[in-house]
Write a structure and sequence with these properties.
Elements: H1 3-26, H2 28-31, H3 36-46, H4 50-63, H5 70-116, H6 128-140, H7 146-153, H8 160-187, H9 190-219
């Protein structure tokens, strides 16, 4: 795909998703898709199309960053249980991440590489392995924006497969825990709900603890 075609396709995608986002924000009914119990009711109404709805909503929430993805993930576990709920979350998140990555790659990659690609201090951004590890680690930390990382990665030299693999591996633990949380909501087991919340908290701080330990080891 030549440069002009990339810009045209990327711009068209931005326009389409911008229109969809405005429609989402202005529609009261569609806003209910981002509230756990209301979405669970919608999934029951559409029956066999429920998994497709979860995938579409998850992908949309990632491409259109202000839309929340956590309620969708929890509703997926609420409606379909731990295993299938996790699978639908993963598929939707992966598709959304790849769309965001592609938009960024088409619209900004060439300009960024032209400006910074040959500078010595940015050479680490040329290593696919380093970038893959960075994407993987950031996926493990819930408070780092999933959406921003997806767009930012598209501006670097990381390949599509490396990005997709790092994203999949990184979001697997959080996806399972959110689906598990939703599944326990269905059972009304308070003790298990609290255990899941604690595990989510542990997942958040573990990469930070590892980073501090590595930093201290290097200083020694």
């Amino acid at each position: 795909m030549n440069l002009l075609n990339k810009y045209l396709v990327g711009t068209l995608l931005v326009i389409i998703f911008s229109i969809v986002y405005i429609y989402f924000k202005q529609s009261v009914e569609l806003n209910s898709f981002f509230e756990v119990h209301a979405l669970k009711a919608k999934l029951e109404q559409v029956e066999s199309l429920g998994p497709v709805l979860i995938v579409v909503l998850m992908a949309s929430a990632i491409v259109m960053s202000p839309l929340p993805s956590a309620p969708i993930a929890i509703a997926s576990g609420f409606a379909y249980g731990h295993t299938w709920g996790t699978l639908y979350i993963l598929v939707g998140a992966e598709i959304g991440a790849l769309i965001a990555f592609s938009i960024s790659r088409m619209l900004g990659y060439d300009a960024v590489q032209k400006r910074f690609g040959n500078k010595e201090k940015y050479k680490y951004l040329s290593s696919g392995k380093h970038l893959m590890f960075f994407v993987f680690i950031t996926r493990l930390i819930p408070f780092i924006s999933f959406d921003i990382i997806s767009y930012a990665a598209g501006l670097t030299k990381i390949g599509y497969f490396q990005f997709a693999l790092a994203t999949f591996a990184g979001i697997l633990p959080a996806s399972f825990l959110l689906a598990h949380f939703g599944g326990e909501m269905a059972s009304d087991d308070t003790q298990k709900l609290m255990t899941t919340v604690l595990l989510l908290g542990l997942l958040t701080v573990t990469p930070l603890i590892i980073g501090v330990i590595k930093k201290n080891i290097k200083k020694q």
